[in-house]
């Protein structure tokens, strides 16, 4: 994300490369997350409702519901129930088990059971790309799919936009590859009705190396469902690139997912009509939680947002109907007077929200309506009105 106006790609690339080499983020010294090498589990469970509130039934008004049930129902396999923000599923950065505390090697997780339900089963990045099509149900049945496997042999850090990198992977009618900064970004475009579902537990991971790229970006894609997967970067970055992006899309649904270690934000929505994020954990992102622009009817339900930093954590511009219900915000932090919520020509509603131990001085800039919630140990508490 460019924060200092429009510049030429070459000039900006040189500046960013110098910052990276010096170990400095766009906003100052980078504060490393507590657990940079591994996504920190699924987070704590979002709190149960604190009390009933009037009008709670319209939390997702205008948003398509799919009644999908549990991830086990979605994948048709036993043991497929997702570990949501409060679940117990653990993930590792590779198929190699990490060292145990006593110097030995931990027991690797059991192999995933075979999947025999509907859809196209994929286990590699190439199979994942080839399966993208209108009406597709893509079942991820591997522990991990690394999109960077499509351009092997490239060292980390990768290249930037001032130096040549490898040619892009092969595209399809519905997949193209762009280079926002330091590597190829997968864009799924111009289709309707696609479902990406992880099979088994712990949820499969979809990752990428380039720090300046979104893991997945959807452009002019309608009726998109993502369920029971973990998405993130193998190397956290900053300045550009998040986890999930949707542009000119509608009827988006993300359930039982974990988004970690992005360069900017966990979620970016631009001109999206109708989006539901339920039982989603967003953590260890280096700019914030979400950016929502020119969109309508966006709901975050029973979700957890923790250990994100360092600018405006939730940006909402020219958007109607943004709602956070039964969500936990914990351990997030900003720099200086960057607010938790930065709201322009929009309104954000908080229902049964819990804010705990957030190092944020300014809670809101713009209209944020608090219907019910709990606040504990936050820096901003003296600046907000009682509920």
Order of helices and strands: HEEHEHEEEEEEEEEEEEEEEEEEEEE
Reported CATH architecture = 3 Solenoid
Tertiary shape = globular
Secondary structure: helix percent: under 10%
What structural category do the secondary elements indicate? mainly beta
How many structural domains? 1
CATH level 1 name:
Mainly Beta
**Averaging pLDDT over every residue, what do you get?**
76
Poorly predicted regions are: 1-101
- H/I helix tally: 3
Q: Evaluate the radius of gyration.
A: 20 Å
Distance between the termini: 35 Å
Percentage of residues in strands: 35-45%
- The CATH topology assignment is Pectate Lyase C-like
Got a strand count? 24
Largest sheet: 22 strands, mixed
Outline the structure in words.
- By secondary structure, this protein is mainly beta.
- The chain has a single domain, classed as 3 Solenoid (Pectate Lyase C-like).
- It is 7% helix and 36% strand.
- It has helices at residues 9-22, 71-75, 125-131; strands at residues 24-25, 28-29, 120-122, 137-140, 144-146, 175-178, 185-198, 205-208, 216-227, 230-233, 244-260, 265-283, 288-293, 296-301, 304-306, 314-317, 320-325, 328-330, 339-344, 348-351, 353-356, 362-365, 368-370, 373-376.
- The strands form 2 sheets. The protein has a 22-stranded mixed sheet that branches. It has a two-stranded antiparallel ribbon with strand order 1-2.
- Strand 1 (24-25) and strand 2 form a beta hairpin.
- The radius of gyration is 20 Å and the shape is globular.
- The two termini are 35 Å apart.
- Residues 1-101 have low confidence and may be disordered.
């Amino acid at each position: 994300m460019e924060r200092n106006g429009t510049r030429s790609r070459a000039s900006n690339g040189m500046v960013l490369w110098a910052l990276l080499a010096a170990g400095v983020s766009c906003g100052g010294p980078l504060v490393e997350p507590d657990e940079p090498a591994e996504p920190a589990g699924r987070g704590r469970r979002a709190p149960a409702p604190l009390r009933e509130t009037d009008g709670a039934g319209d939390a997702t008004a205008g948003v398509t519901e799919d009644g999908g049930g549990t991830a086990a129902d979605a994948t048709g396999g036993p043991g497929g129930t997702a570990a949501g923000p409060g679940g117990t599923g653990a993930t590792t950065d590779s198929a190699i088990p990490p060292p145990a505390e006593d110097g030995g090697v931990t027991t690797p997780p059991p192999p995933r059971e075979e999947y025999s339900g509907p859809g196209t089963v994929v286990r590699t990045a190439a199979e994942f790309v080839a399966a993208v099509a209108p009406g597709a149900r893509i079942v991820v049945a591997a522990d991990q799919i690394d999109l960077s496997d499509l351009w092997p042999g490239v060292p980390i850090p990768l290249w930037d936009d001032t130096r040549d990198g490898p040619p892009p992977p092969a595209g399809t009618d519905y997949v193209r590859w762009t280079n926002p900064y330091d590597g190829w970004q997968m864009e799924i475009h111009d289709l309707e009705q696609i479902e990406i579902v992880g099979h088994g537990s712990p949820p499969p991971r979809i990752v990428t190396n380039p720090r300046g790229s979104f893991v997945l970006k959807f452009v002019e894609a309608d009726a998109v469902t993502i369920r029971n997967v973990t998405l993130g970067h193998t190397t956290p970055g900053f300045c550009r690139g998040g986890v999930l992006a949707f542009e000119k899309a509608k009827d988006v649904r993300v359930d039982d997912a974990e988004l970690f270690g992005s360069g900017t934000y966990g979620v970016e929505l631009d001109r999206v009509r109708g989006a539901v994020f339920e039982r989603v954990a967003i953590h260890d992102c280096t700019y914030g939680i979400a950016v929502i622009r020119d969109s309508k009817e966006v709901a975050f339900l029973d979700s957890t947002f923790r250990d994100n930093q360092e600018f405006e954590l939730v940006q909402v511009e020219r958007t109607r109907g943004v709602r956070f219900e039964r969500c936990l915000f914990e351990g997030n932090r900003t720099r200086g007077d960057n607010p938790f919520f930065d709201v322009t020509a929009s309104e954000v509603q908080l229902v049964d929200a819990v804010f705990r131990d957030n190092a944020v001085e300014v809670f809101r800039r713009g209209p944020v309506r608090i219907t019910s919630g709990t606040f504990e140990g936050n820096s901003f508490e003296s600046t907000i009105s009682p509920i």
